[in-house]
Design goal:
The structure holds 2 protein chains of 2 kinds.
Chain A: H1 7-13, H2 23-26, E1 40-49, E2 52-62, E3 67-71, H3 78-85, E4 93-98, E5 101-102, H4 107-112, E6 114-117, H5 129-139, H6 144-158, H7 173-185, E7 191-195, H8 203-218, E8 222-227, H9 230-234, E9 238-243, E10 246-251, H10 253-258, H11 269-288
Chain B: H1 8-25, H2 27-47, E1 55-61, H3 66-77, E2 81-86, H4 89-98, E3 103-107, H5 111-116, E4 124-127, H6 132-157, H7 179-209, H8 213-218, H9 223-252, H10 261-286, H11 289-307, H12 319-325, H13 330-342, H14 347-375
Parallel strand pairs in B: 1-2, 1-3
Antiparallel strand pairs in B: 3-4
Helix pairs in contact in B: 1-9, 2-7, 2-9, 7-9, 7-10, 7-11, 7-13, 9-10, 10-11, 10-13, 10-14
Classes of the chains: A alpha/beta, B mainly alpha.
Chain lengths: 289, 377
């Protein structure tokens, strides 16, 4: 868990200035005492909408401190899987647990244990940054001085100070994303769900984000992240590749590069990804023929 | 949701605070809560009236005797009529056609002579039958005035004259028989129905339209908790609107207030639970602010206006329509409201109505939570 294969990604984005240690992560309690207890578990998650199967028999588990990527094209089923795991959709079959809580039994407790950053900005555009943070903190049960401390910490770590009294809807995209990340980690959850956290932001913000995500994971928080950026997937400890609602591969980025047919090693995760998708297509077409 | 959530009240408080912050930032809420009741109360109270005063009436005196002049003067002094003298029927008819007159009265030639000889002269009234209410009221007002005039005249000539029968009518609770007394409490019901359903019609739809519902649903609060927390601020606003309406009724229109504030508070709270729930269900169902507003107006305002007994008495509706009135919440509000103003507290009548309204509230609340649950099912 300590050595992270992010040298390539970090180097690519590095503008030379070393990053300060993440102040966002420091508030997270160390949660590495139960490394074998899965922080997130998907057990045969399936979601059907009528005849359409949006996700079929998806299984994986994420350990505390692990960054787990869901990689796949749009509409592949990663969002559906994601939504089932944060209680926004109910599985047709299978079940999911977050921090040991079954989502179908203890939905509120499971949600309390997770921080969620949706793909689409879903805070209140008419309210100020401060009001939004206050609301989210309260919704997760933080009040009084604990709330004040949490908000101050997030504001300082993400540089939101100058925007506190601005309406959230008028912020530049990068600041909006920082606010959304800040809102997701106010209650220092043991599980963090990030749905395409860096889509549409510039490389500097992406670097900053991954710096925080890596540091938070290092404290023992499990991070589930969806992405279609190959370099971001490269930064994950393990990746699940989803296409056409099914799992087509699962493993570390290294394992995925080695898993392509023909015994070769793909030059990049991107190359491995396309090769895997291609193989699936051929298998499916062969089965149909 | 199966276990008690120890942080429930904190989460609920956070949602309420957020809702208040948004209300505060949105000037249209102020318009809805303060200006709309003022405007509607003014309209309903002054413009919508079932009383007929100063009906434009023509008078053609073909007799030109002292008796006919006396009758004409009596009519002119009566506030029900605004008399315009015409020379002939031919001159009055075009005015009736154009709407300048609502009707005209003809005193026939030989009126005084017939009276003196003990015959009963006939006075003719021609009214505009296309304005049914005005025409009927004009006829009955004229009938009453003529009878009074006849009796007064008989007494003048014969001190011992006694009318054969007399009716002493006491219009309890509304001695001046002002339709305003009945209309204003009803108008409060209509205004509350409209504001209540409009207030909440917007709030869920807004969350869906702006994509914030996702974030709200991913927080740990339970769905019933979410719905109740969102409702509460609008309930307070609804009560504020009600208070404005009541103030206008008492201070502006001089209505008595013979019941208690407790009764008013309980009845309007139960009613708000029903209409706020209705608006919320519409909002969660349409997920679109515009459609939601249209729906709220159609389903909240129109039935309340037509089927609540406000304009048309329920007892005189066809039986099928009478059944339909049972699903209109305003039907259960307006009679208690009228009592609170004009009669006093009649708990035996209030309680069934309050229970019915709370039933509506519970029904809508369950439907809303189910509708939202289905979306994450």
């Amino acid at each position: 868990m300590t050595a992270r294969p992010d040298e390539g990604f970090a180097a690519m984005l590095d503008d030379g200035a070393p990053l300060q240690p993440s102040a966002l992560a420091e508030a997270f309690p160390l949660r590495l005492d139960q490394p074998d207890q899965p922080a997130i578990a998907a057990i045969g998650l399936t979601r059907r909408y009528g005849d359409f199967i949006a996700a079929q028999d998806i299984s994986f588990s994420v350990r505390p401190g692990e960054i787990f990527g869901l990689l796949g094209p749009n509409g592949a089923g990663k969002s559906t899987t994601f939504r089932m795991l944060c209680g926004l959709a109910t599985p047709s079959a299978g079940r999911g647990t977050v921090a040991g809580r079954d989502l179908s039994v203890a939905r509120a407790e499971a949600r309390q244990a997770l921080g969620y950053m949706p793909q689409k900005f879903s805070l209140y555009g008419d309210l100020t940054v401060a009001a939004n943070l206050k609301f989210v903190a309260g919704a997760y049960g933080l009040t009084g001085s604990a709330q004040g401390t949490a908000i101050e910490r997030v504001v300082a770590a993400l540089g939101l100070g100058p925007y506190l009294e601005s309406a959230a809807g008028l912020l530049p995209l990068g600041v909006k994303q920082r606010l959304a990340l800040g809102a997701a980690v106010l209650h220092t959850p043991p599980v963090l769900f990030l749905d395409e956290p860096t889509s549409g932001v510039d490389p500097l913000v992406r670097r900053e984000f991954w710096h925080h995500i890596n540091a938070i994971a290092a404290r023992g928080t499990a991070v589930l992240v969806t992405t279609h950026f190959m370099d971001e997937a490269e930064n994950c400890d393990r990746v699940l590749v989803i296409n056409r609602s099914q799992t087509i591969a699962q493993g570390t980025p290294d394992e995925l590069r080695r898993s392509i047919p023909g015994g070769e090693i793909a030059p990049s995760l991107g190359a491995a990804f396309f090769s895997l998708i291609d193989t699936q297509r051929r298998v499916l077409e062969g089965a149909a023929a | 949701m199966s276990r008690r959530d120890p942080l429930f009240w904190r989460r609920a408080a956070a949602i309420r605070a957020k809702e208040w912050a948004q209300i505060w930032l949105d000037p249209s809420t102020f318009g809805l809560v303060v200006l709309m009741p003022l405007i509607l109360m003014f309209l309903f109270g002054s413009a919508v009236t079932l009383d007929v005063h100063g009906t434009r009436t023509g008078l053609i005196d073909l007799d030109r005797s002292s008796a006919s002049r006396d009758l004409a003067a009596t009519l002119s002094h009566n506030s029900y009529f605004r008399i315009a003298e015409k020379d002939s029927v031919a001159a009055a008819e075009p005015a009736l056609r154009s709407g300048a007159l609502r009707g005209f009265v003809v005193i026939p030639d030989g009126f005084e002579r017939d009276l003196a000889s003990g015959q009963v002269p006939a006075i003719q009234l021609v009214t505009d039958g296309s304005q049914v209410n005005t025409a009927t009221l004009l006829a009955s007002n004229l009938r009453g005035t003529l009878r009074a005039w006849g009796e007064a005249r008989a007494r003048e000539q014969d001190e011992t004259f006694r009318p054969p029968l007399s009716l002493i009518a006491r219009y309890t609770y509304n001695p001046e028989l002002e339709s305003r007394y009945m209309l204003v409490p009803g108008a409060i019901g209509i205004v509350m129905a409209m504001i209540g359903s409009l207030l909440t019609a917007l709030i869920m739809a807004r969350e869906y339209e702006r994509g914030t519902m996702e974030g709200l649903l991913s927080t740990p609060i339970s769905i019933p908790g979410l719905v109740l927390s969102k409702l509460l601020p609008y309930y307070v606003l609804g009560l504020a609107s009600t208070a404005i309406c009541v103030a206008v009724a008492v201070l502006g229109y001089g209505l008595p207030f013979r019941g208690s504030f407790l009764a008013l508070f309980l009845v309007s709270s139960a009613f708000l639970a029903a209409v706020l729930g209705q608006g919320l269900l519409i909002s969660a169902g349409t997920k679109n602010q515009f459609v939601s507003t249209q729906f709220a107006l159609l389903s909240g305002f129109l039935p309340s206006l037509l089927l609540s007994g406000f304009l048309f008495e329920i007892d005189s509706m066809p039986i099928g329509i009478q059944w339909l009135t049972y699903i209109v919440p305003a039907r259960y509000l307006i009679p208690p409201l009228q009592s609170v103003f004009l009669v006093g507290d009649i708990w035996s009548m209030f309680l069934p109505n309050i229970l019915a309204l709370m039933g509506f509230g519970a029904f809508f609340f369950l439907r809303v939570t189910r509708a939202i649950k289905r979306q994450i099912a």
